[in-house]
Design brief:
heterotetramer; A mainly alpha (about 325); B alpha+beta (about 525); C alpha/beta (about 550); D mainly alpha (about 280); B: alpha+beta; D-Maltodextrin-Binding Protein, domain 2; Dipeptide-binding Protein, domain 1; Dipeptide-binding Protein, domain 3; 4-stranded mixed beta sheet; 17 helices; 20 strands; about 30% helix; C: about 550 residues; alpha/beta; Rossmann fold; 6-stranded mixed beta sheet; 20 helices; globular; cell membrane (chain C)
């Protein structure tokens, strides 16, 4: 089928982009001051030349840069992302261990923000010039303007400390030994605060976008046609205006989904969520190059994946693209 | 004459551990925090603080030390030294087995010290260079022969420095790729159970531990929570019972200390005696002038820093030797907070307002605030300061390259000046690339001589005289700024009993701990 | 045919419609009264801004936001439509009054299948079940003459041509057999041949069903083609109302007369003799292919916009390039001015090769051929004063700024806009902007001017003025003109020579009189036959 | 209607402008009202708001005047917001203009380049850049600019794509104007209004980004910025809520004001849209 060929082409393009990203990041990270061996040695509390030499040799840091790059790239080609200097584990294992947590967090936040944003945005669009519509938009603007980490801090203080309703950090209750449904509920409870915090900002974006896009769509000629048919306003809003308004939102959502991984760094730090964002920040501070490169690679791959998914969804939503010739 | 020291020491150890009238009780798991997450748990291969704290319960050394840094028996029951101070003989317990059931013998001691640590462990190498040979006399006796008497020898057997590593699992392998690194095997009171990266490390009771009745706890959960505020919440809502040093921000400590059923101790750090210092680049710029360095000492309000930033914990040091250090000279002239005097000194040297760069220590909020306070102190006596923020990587690099004017750091004193203090001032210790040696570039032949003689002088009275003299010189030259002997508090629920029972108690104390619930 | 004694189906009485504050006038429609009877087609005619479609929108309850009826009544079957609530209006729309719009491209929801959009009409009024609705939709599509209705019902709007979409719109509007159909400029966006077909369809359906049609248009040709009665509007008021025959033949009002006269007639002027025989522009075997790159979902495409096009133009001559959309006439114009580069063939101007010029060399020669554009609103940079807009060409070619500005003033006077050089484009009307566009072209003293649909976007009365101006300038400055248009009547009026194009090829070319009065090719005849109101005018002549 | 009248029709925009002017006034007046360095430790730490005269917002963990910090911080936040936006525009506008105007291979190459930057999550890239260059005003401004130019380039490219075939541009080409002149004089002035609107929103985003960087400890240690104040107060949020509350509100208000002003500008610069929206 045509689809298969096109997706294959996209994947090929993705490989090229990923390859460029590897090189870009590799060079970028080399520009950072600080020798990873020295940092490791520093953490050990004492050093001598022998120790540094051992570390450099062990991680191949004594090789010329192009050799290091070549080794890295050829490793990645075989899905070998190297060894984390500091965590003493293969990078792939570390990332795969943390990735589900990030995907759970960002996925939940994404779905939540998209759903609530579209609902709130449609309501606001349908209530233009009415107080209820203005209140929705004022709230959206407020969430948009509020620093994410600040909301996170405030919500911990409010919901965990003063109200004691929700756990403040972590992904599950350690030592509780939950399994099955109990574990799901436990994780769910831990998920509420970080996911909501992360979702608020993006929800604000989707709300504003949905409203603008709906108002735009409601100016279109076919809306007048629909009214001339005698269709009810609610049907027009849903079937004609919203459906058309969703197209630009799909594009935006595809872009934002990738950015959420970045936003997760702050959320994961405040809520101690054991995800890839936090891992990245730690890896950066420790100059854990291989780990950092690996995380960059995976987050870029995620972004590309989201872009491809976005294109596919867009193709499904817009017949002009799917069946166009 | 061989001196059996052990008996007296054992008595001292008893006095530390039996503070409470109640009989210790078995049972319960303790929840605490480890911050940051350690890179691995094999002591000796990795020696950073979090590794020591967790692995100190899995691995053991030959000796422990009291909070006064006197040795106590551990894997060695007793020991003696030859009259010339060069041969030390240790007698080992014969009832010890590794967590995998294999017996612990003198061969393990020789392997650990002579092979494993010699290859991997730089702090052990500092001691090993004074050792001529290590031999197993029989299964339970080991003999160390030194090339000449070495003052701090006996204080080097703490678990973090000379950890005992199982020879049968490591010999002949690539130590760093050994499969047991992910499941460490030691002789300690707790066994490694699991490590959920980013979340928790769990240890369980070693039911076959050789000391009767010990340990009392069923296990330890080390929670990993990367945010300071979240860690405080974890203590408040009862998830964890113990907050080791460095897990919550200093600003939070007074508030937490006032919570119900909360006790605080500063004990358990005596062996390390962390000492905060301000590196001052002796090579170039205004800091190369002794009067400038003296002015900095007078300009800084160290009491303010202690009271506001460190909750009044810790000591403003007199000079280069901390109050816990052996051989401190009590007759030195202290540097008081005296901005007037600082300005006079600056005038005298003709300071022209040249900018100096200040590197804070990238170890968290308190250190950042401290740098801000010092920056402000210095500005107020007319010194132009620009703070240059770095992360750990940048900080290491800048110090290693001597690319700084003023820089914060803190160093452990390791109980003996020859281990923890002289390294900062010996000109032979000037070498690019490390942030832990004589980074300031201070060179004074007399100081070198005095430190070197004192390290190998025998007995202690001789060492004391030498060390007193060196302190007087340093006091005048101010090679570095002496900021604060840090007091690291541990917060815990008061019903957690016998939490700290040694001079490295934060690392090996859970052995004796029990829950009074 | 009209029974004036019968009760009207719809009766507008003294209807006034107010515009929002800040508009150019207070009332869009002022005190308008007219009736629509069963079985008749009433044409409401007017130029842009006459308010001709406002009343219709008010009848449908579809007035734009901010616009509201400020007086009068619209009686339909005994009830005043202007007093209905939205809900009451809704039960009427689609069921008893249907409506079709100008832009078939945008009036259908691009994301819904055609069948579903038709079925929606039944759904809105709760009629039939799902299967029946589809069957009904199919029957309707067949009735409006869509080819292959089985396929069309499953098609998305973008898969249909403009004419087909307008048929779908008509099918939708007629689904529930309404008594009144409002058609708001339904053929304006269509090609002339398609327009003829749609007009025929509407007339056909109207007669078969005996319904009333209110047909809104700006084109008297269309009126002549379709109307029973005519209502002429200007500035929101009715200037004339009466039987179509009477109004067209004997307009009683000056404005109506002016409008009818402004329609270019088929009275074709004799070709003027060319000044020389040496061709100014020579086009031989010109080819141009557009290639679109494929994307994720679309394969690459090729469009042959020009195929083997040859003609020549002598100095002082006006050649008209006519054709429907997609015929390649605009591409040809753009190739001649070198906004596009032809793929092959020759293109020479007074003997110099104009086709292979590139970069700086091309830039230096550009002044020789200038263009007048279609859209008066897009052809002037909104941020530049018009004096500067005219002067910047000469300035770019090395004339001093002072001289160029003085020349610009002169040219503005020449096109009838004396003393307006320091105004911005938005201060001018469409016709005035087109005059500025002409002045800008003249400022370069070109050898040849290409006018690309230069009057298509203008109202008919303005169109006439601009054509007059061009005619005058032609005489005064002996211009050579390549006049591109879809409107054969316009071409007939101004051109000496006609080139008819279709699908990128020249179908026929020759002196204007010959092509119009004795076309050799079937396609040319088809085009000529499709001109609305042609029979009427020919009968008139 | 005049530009300002159109702007003032949007009540939110007017409120936003008033807030923004207040903040700008704060920034300008800071050295006059609080001539002492905001770093100076002047009172006992953790002084609650309104407790001691001269300390309306209390003192922070080290006894520094929060009000002084807030006023001086306004300057830093606005400066970083403005400068980084300017730098981002300086990168994005030419790239977008060239890509949109010339199209073809140049467009392809430049857009691949832009997409490439969008493939790395913004915030992560900003963190890495600041960490690599070491935190300072310059590195923060650069990092923010580097992660925020792609939307500018895309916007400008889209505008150029739609304008480059406008008839007045073609007319300019026909009279022999050079590409540079056409880009600078014909097209660019007509893309200014969406750029101005985007820029006002970018300033807001830049301020948020700076605060997030400072929150993670990647701020310039020599300047008192709001993000720094929250970052520094985050550990004591339980004892001293006002330390993170006031700077948080300051950021919120500034970002809010900039967004409101941006919307107002949008309305005023695109009157047609505004009418449809209201």
């Amino acid at each position: 089928m045509l689809y298969v060929r096109l997706i294959t082409m996209r994947l090929l393009k993705a490989v090229v982009v990923l390859f460029m990203i590897i090189i870009f990041n590799f060079v970028l990270i080399q520009l950072a001051p600080g020798d990873p061996a020295a940092i490791l040695a520093g953490e050990a509390g004492a050093t001598d030349e022998e120790f540094l030499r051992q570390l450099r040799e062990r991680f191949g840091l004594d090789q010329p840069l192009y050799v290091q790059l070549w080794r890295y790239v050829s490793g990645v080609a075989m899905l070998d992302f190297g060894f984390s200097y500091r965590q003493q584990m293969p990078v792939l294992d570390l990332i795969l261990a943390r990735l589900p947590a990030t995907l759970l967090l960002t996925g939940t936040a994404f779905v939540l923000s998209l759903f609530l944003g579209i609902v709130a945005g449609s309501l606001a669009a349908a209530r233009v010039k009415k107080p209820s519509g203005s209140i929705i938009m004022a709230l959206a603007l407020l969430f948009y303007a509020t620093p994410l980490f600040w909301v996170a801090l405030m919500s911990v203080v409010l919901f965990s400390v003063y109200l004691d309703l929700l756990p403040a950090y972590g992904m599950y209750t350690v030592g509780a030994g939950h399994t099955g449904l109990a574990l799901v509920l436990d994780v769910g409870k831990h998920l509420i605060l970080p996911a909501t915090t992360l979702a608020l900002f993006f929800m604000a974006i989707y709300t504003r976008m949905t409203r603008a896009s709906m108002l735009d769509a409601s100016q279109q000629d076919f809306v007048k046609t629909a009214r001339a048919k005698g269709l009810k306003n609610s049907v027009i809003q849903r079937r004609h205006i919203l459906r058309n308004a969703l197209l630009p939102i799909i594009t935006l959502a595809g872009l934002q989904a990738g950015q959420m991984v970045g936003g997760a760094i702050l959320t994961e730090t405040v809520f101690a969520w054991p995800g890839i964002g936090r891992l990245m920040f730690e890896a950066l501070q420790q100059r854990d190059y291989n780990l950092l490169l690996g995380i960059f690679f995976f987050s870029a791959a995620l972004v590309i994946l989201f872009n491809i998914i976005t294109d596919l969804v867009y193709g499904l939503a817009d017949p002009r693209i799917k069946e166009g010739s | 004459m061989k001196t059996p020291l052990a008996l007296a020491i054992a008595a001292a150890a008893l006095s530390v551990s039996t503070v409470h009238a109640d009989e210790p009780r078995h049972g319960g798991t303790i929840d605490t925090i480890i911050q940051p997450e350690p890179p691995g748990l094999v002591l000796g291969m990795i020696q950073n603080a979090p590794t020591r704290t967790v692995a100190g319960n899995i691995y053991e050394g030959l000796l422990r030390y009291t909070t006064d840094l006197e040795p106590m028996p551990q894997l060695a029951t007793d020991w003696e030294v030859s009259e010339d101070g060069r041969t030390w003989t240790f007698h080992l317990r014969d009832d010890v087995s590794w967590h995998d059931g294999e017996p612990f013998t003198a061969e393990d001691v020789v392997f650990s010290a002579d092979v494993f640590h010699r290859e991997l462990n730089p702090s052990a190498r500092a001691v090993l260079q004074h050792i001529e040979s290590i031999e197993a006399v029989d299964d339970y006796t080991v003999e160390f022969t030194l090339d000449e008497p070495f003052g701090p020898f006996l204080i080097s057997f703490e678990a973090g420095t000379f950890t005992m590593i199982p020879k049968h699992l490591y010999e002949g392998t690539d130590f760093r790729d050994n499969e047991h690194n992910n499941h460490p095997i030691g002789t300690g009171p707790f066994k490694f159970d699991s490590w959920d990266r980013g979340t928790v490390i769990q240890l369980v009771r070693n039911d076959d531990y050789y000391e009767d009745d010990l340990p009392y706890l069923d296990g330890i959960n080390w929670h990993i929570i990367p945010d300071g505020a979240s860690r405080a919440v974890a203590y408040e809502n009862g998830t964890v019972d113990v907050l080791p040093y460095g897990t919550v921000e200093n600003f939070d400590i007074p508030r937490l200390a006032e919570l119900d059923n909360t006790c605080m101790t500063e004990a358990g750090h005596e062996y390390f005696s962390p000492f905060a210092m301000l590196w001052m680049n002796n090579r170039e710029g205004p800091t190369a002038d002794k009067r400038f360095r003296q002015a900095v000492m007078h300009a800084m309000d160290r009491e303010f820093a202690r009271d506001v930033l460190w909750n009044g914990l810790g000591n403003v040091p007199l000079g280069a030797f901390g109050s816990n250090a052996r051989f401190q000279n009590p007759d030195l002239e202290p540097y008081d907070h005296d901005p007037e005097r600082a300005r006079e000194l600056l005038d005298e040297m003709g300071y022209d307002g040249e900018e100096v760069r200040l590197l804070p220590l990238p170890y968290g909020e308190t250190w950042t605030r401290w740098a801000e306070a010092v920056q402000q102190n210095l500005r107020e006596v007319g010194i132009e300061v620009r703070t240059e923020a770095t992360d750990v990587g940048g900080w290491n690099q800048r110090l290693g390259d001597w690319d700084y004017d003023l820089a914060f750091t803190y160093l452990f004193q390791y109980g003996d000046p020859a281990l923890g203090i002289s390294r900062t001032y010996l000109s032979t210790n000037i070498e690019r690339g490390s942030p832990w040696n004589n980074v300031e570039g201070y060179e004074n032949e007399r100081v070198d001589e005095l430190f070197n003689e004192a390290a190998t002088a025998f007995p202690d009275e001789e060492r004391e005289a030498l060390y007193h003299e060196v302190q007087e010189i340093l006091q005048e030259d101010v090679p570095v700024g002496w900021l604060l002997e840090l007091g690291f508090p541990t917060l815990y629920r008061c019903d957690v009993q016998d939490l700290v029972t040694s001079g490295v108690g934060v690392n090996d104390g859970f052995k004796d701990t029990w829950l009074d619930r | 045919m009209t029974d004036s004694q019968a009760t009207p189906l719809l009766s507008l009485r003294n209807v006034s419609i107010a515009l929002p504050k800040g508009a150019d006038r207070a009332l869009a429609v002022e005190d308008v009264s007219y009736d629509v009877f069963r079985g008749e087609i009433l044409c409401v005619v007017g130029e842009s801004g006459s308010g001709k479609s406002m009343a219709a929108n008010a009848v449908m309850g579809l007035l734009p936001k901010g616009v509201y009826t400020s007086g009068g009544e619209a009686i339909f079957d005994g009830q005043d439509l202007l007093q209905l609530s939205e809900k009451q209006h809704r039960t009427l729309r689609g069921l008893r009054i249907g409506m079709i719009f100008q832009e078939p491209m945008t009036a259908l929801n691009p994301l819904m299948r055609v069948g579903a959009q038709i079925a929606e009409v039944f759904e809105a009024h709760g009629q039939f079940n799902g299967r029946e609705r589809q069957q009904k939709a199919l029957a309707l599509l067949t009735e409006v003459g869509i080819p292959d209705p089985d396929k069309a019902i499953r098609a998305y709007p973008f898969q249909l041509s403009g004419g087909q979409r307008q048929r779908v719109m008509i099918a939708m509007a007629l689904a529930l057999e309404p008594e009144l159909l409002i058609a708001d400029e339904p053929t304006t966006a269509l090609d002339v041949t398609t327009q003829a077909q749609i007009l025929e369809l509407i007339r056909d359906l109207q007669q078969r069903r005996g319904m009333a049609v209110m047909f809104i248009t700006h084109d008297f040709g269309v009126v002549a083609e379709i109307a029973n009665r005519v209502c002429v509007m200007r500035y929101g008021q009715i200037v004339e109302l009466g039987e179509a025959e009477a109004v067209l033949k004997h307009p009683s009002h000056d404005y109506t007369r002016a409008l009818i006269e402004a329609i270019p007639s088929d009275v074709i002027p004799e070709a003027r003799g060319a000044e020389t025989d040496t061709p100014l522009l020579e086009v031989v075997g010109l080819n141009k292919v557009f290639r679109s790159k494929g994307g994720l979902f679309k394969p690459a495409r090729e469009v042959h916009a020009l195929q083997d096009v040859s003609f020549s133009l002598v100095k002082g001559e006006t050649i008209g390039i006519v054709g429907e959309s997609g015929s390649g006439k605009s591409t040809l114009g753009r190739c001649v001015v070198r906004l596009e580069r032809p793929d092959s063939g020759t293109l020479s101007l007074s003997g110099t090769d104009f086709m292979h010029l590139q970069g700086e060399a091309l830039r230096r020669e550009r002044h020789r051929v200038q263009m007048i554009f279609q859209d008066p609103y897009a052809s002037l940079n909104p941020r530049h004063r018009v004096g500067y807009a005219i002067a910047q060409g000469p300035i770019a070619n090395g004339t001093s700024k002072g001289q160029a500005m003085a020349k610009a003033k002169e040219l503005l006077a020449l096109v009838g806009l004396d003393g307006t050089d320091d105004r911005y484009p938005h201060e001018f009307s469409g016709g005035q902007r087109q005059r500025i566009g002409i002045a800008r072209a003249l400022a370069m003293q070109p050898e040849l001017i290409v006018a690309d649909e230069a009057v298509s976007a203008l109202d008919v009365s303005i169109q006439a003025q601009i054509l007059e101006l061009l005619e005058e300038l032609k005489q005064k400055l002996s211009l050579s003109l390549l006049f591109i248009t879809h409107d054969l009547r316009v071409a007939a009026q101004i051109c000496d020579h006609i080139v008819v194009m279709q699908h990128g090829r020249i179908v026929e070319q020759g002196p204007a009189r010959e092509v119009f009065l004795a076309p050799r090719e079937a396609y040319t005849r088809e085009l000529l036959d499709a001109i609305p109101g042609r029979e009427h005018e020919l009968a008139d002549a | 209607m005049s530009f300002f009248a159109r702007f003032a029709q949007n009540r939110g925009a007017l409120i936003g402008l008033i807030i923004l002017l207040t903040i700008i006034a704060m920034a300008i007046l800071a050295p006059l009202l609080f001539p002492e360095s905001p770093w100076r430790m002047v009172q006992r730490p953790f002084l609650p708001p309104m407790e001691v005269d001269g300390f309306p917002l209390g003192t922070d963990t080290m006894g520094r005047n929060v009000a002084a910090g807030l006023m001086h911080g306004a300057w830093v936040s606005l400066l970083i917001g403005l400068v980084s936006t300017t730098v981002a525009l300086a990168i994005g506008v030419p790239l977008g203009a060239i890509a949109g105007y010339y199209g073809g291979l140049i467009d392809d190459a430049l857009m691949r380049f832009t997409e490439f930057f969008q493939t790395i999550p913004n915030f992560a890239l900003a963190i890495v850049l600041v960490a690599i260059m070491q935190p300072s005003i310059t590195s923060i401004v650069l990092a923010i600019a580097i992660v925020s130019w792609p939307p500018v380039a895309r916007l400008v490219r889209a505008e150029f794509l739609s304008l480059r075939n406008r008839e007045y541009v073609e007319a300019a080409r026909l009279v022999g104007q050079s590409n540079t002149t056409i880009i600078l004089r014909q097209i660019l002035p007509n893309t200014l209004s969406p750029i101005i609107v985007l820029a006002s929103l970018m300033v807001a985003t830049a301020i948020l980004l700076e605060s997030a960087l400072s929150f993670l400890g990647l701020g310039d240690p020599n300047v008192m910025s709001w993000g720094y104040m929250i970052g520094a107060a985050r550990t004591v949020i339980r004892q001293a809520w006002w330390l993170s509350f006031f700077p948080g509100v300051a950021i919120l208000l500034t970002v809010l004001a900039l967004n409101l002003v941006g919307e107002g500008l949008d309305d005023a610069l695109n009157p047609k849209l505004a009418r449809e929206r209201s």
